[in-house]
Amino acid sequence: MEKTSTVQDSLTRQTRMLMYQDLNTRGKLYGGRLLEWIDMVAGITGRRYCGTEVTTAAIDKLDFLTAAKLGDILEIIGKVTYVGNTSFEVKVETYVDRQNGERERINRAYLVMVALDEEERSIRPPRLVLQNDEERLEYEAAEQRYLARKKARAAAK
Ligand SMILES: CC(C)(COP(=O)(O)OP(=O)(O)OC[C@H]1O[C@@H](n2cnc3c(N)ncnc32)[C@H](O)[C@@H]1OP(=O)(O)O)[C@@H](O)C(=O)NCCC(=O)NCCS
User: Fold this and answer.
1) Which atom of ligand 1 is nearest to the CA of 120?
2) How many domains does one find in the chain?
3) CATH code of residue 40
4) Which of 112, 119, 144, 157 could pair covalently with 57 via S-S, beta carbons 3.0-4.6 A apart?
């Protein structure tokens, strides 16, 4: 019997306040800093889900939707959306709580992660147990991305 895990098992939230060292030359959140935080959240999400080491194989899509600035509070939320053979997808969404109390999504990213054993060989992650319609819809969309990635990688060889 294969091990199973749920989206809830993987759910990871990180909260931070934007400081001077997080800004670019225009005084807005530096994209490279956010990318680092997203990759970290995806790694923690993956480890919680798999219970093993994981690595980032690809950042499939990353959209900067709007900017954030000094003093804004960011919440970065990661969850597993799809499990393939040895890879799985983590969706990471970043929200900003503005100083005027408004909340807005500023980034959405999909990362392809791979579970690793002690010798750093790729292994099968737990099978994903879907618990509601939202997770099932998310899974179906993620499966299309997984198949599209497979096709693109095969074509690039
Ligand atoms: C990720 C890694 C372990 C995969 O090695 P591998 O298992 O021998 O490679 P495979 O080609 O068999 O791929 C394993 C799975 O990952 C997927 N995958 C690997 N690279 C991918 C990419 N660039 N894009 C999309 N999917 C990818 C494959 O489709 C496969 O999925 P599946 O088993 O669910 O069908 C290896 O490429 C590696 O170590 N890369 C460096 C990772 C790293 O250093 N990350 C940190 C960067 S900051």
Assistant:
1) 3
2) 1
3) 3.10.129.10
4) 112
Beta bridge partners of 107: 64, 94
| Sequence-distant (≥ 6) Cβ neighbours of residue 130 within 8 angstroms | 7, 136, 139
Phi and psi at 54, nearest 5°, equal: -140, 165
d(CA 21, CA 30): 9
- The parent domain of residue 13 ranges over 4-156
Check if 55 has its Cβ closer than 6 Å to any atom of ligand 1: yes
Q: Where are the alpha helices (DSSP H) in 19-132?
A: 31-50
Q: Which of 78, 81, 108 is nearest to 12 (CA)?
A: 78
> What are the C-alpha distances in Å from 3 to residues 24, 82, 89, 107, 137?
44, 15, 17, 32, 22
Mean of pLDDT values over 26-53: 97
User: Ligand 1 mean position to 147 CA, how many Å?
Assistant: 14
The preferred substitution site among 50, 87, 111 for testing ligand 1, maximizing ligand atoms within 8 Å of CB, is 87
Confidence at residue 82, expressed as pLDDT on a 0 to 100 scale: 98
Instruction: Indicate yes or no: pTM above 0.90.
Output: yes
Q: Are strands 12-17 and 122-123 parallel, antiparallel or unpaired?
A: unpaired
